[in-house]
Design brief:
Structural class: alpha/beta
Largest sheet: 5 strands, mixed
Number of helices: 5
Strand content: 25-35%
Shape: globular
Strand order of the largest sheet: 1-2-3-4-5
Order of helices and strands: EEHEHEHHEH
Number of strands: 5
Length: 123
């Protein structure tokens, strides 16, 4: 079961994702990202701190979202739990295992992700 809630923190669109990001649910995340871009939103934060499982389909959506936003001169930032980003939350471990963690700017929370002065967490 996946739940996506959208909030705005200008200029950022924040998608809070809860549950499992897998073959069945990843199209919903893709749709939310595409909808944001279609309405002119170019800066998107994906809050993955409540994602308990992510498979290769989920990773594919993250990479496709990055590509889409990059192509329209937008920005994509991910939120992984503060401890998890260091110790290895599930999503962080999957991204690292696939060798794609370095492609993403990762932050510990919404405040850090939406503050242009805050540096992303190291890979």
């Amino acid at each position: 079961m996946l739940r996506v809630e959208q909030t705005e923190q200008t200029p950022w669109t924040i998608l809070h994702i809860t549950g499992e990001l897998d073959l069945v649910s990843s199209p919903e995340v893709r749709r939310h990202v595409h909808d944001a871009v279609a309405t002119g939103r170019r800066d998107v934060v994906l809050d993955l701190s409540e994602v308990v499982f992510c498979d290769s389909s989920g990773v594919g959506v993250l990479i496709a979202s990055r590509r889409l936003l990059h192509s329209c001169r937008g920005r994509l930032r991910l939120i992984l739990p503060a401890r998890g980003a260091v110790e290895g939350s599930h999503v962080n471990r999957v991204l690292a295992a696939l060798g794609v963690r370095r492609l993403f700017e990762v932050y510990e929370d919404v405040d850090a992700a939406t503050d242009d002065e805050t540096r992303p967490l190291s890979a």
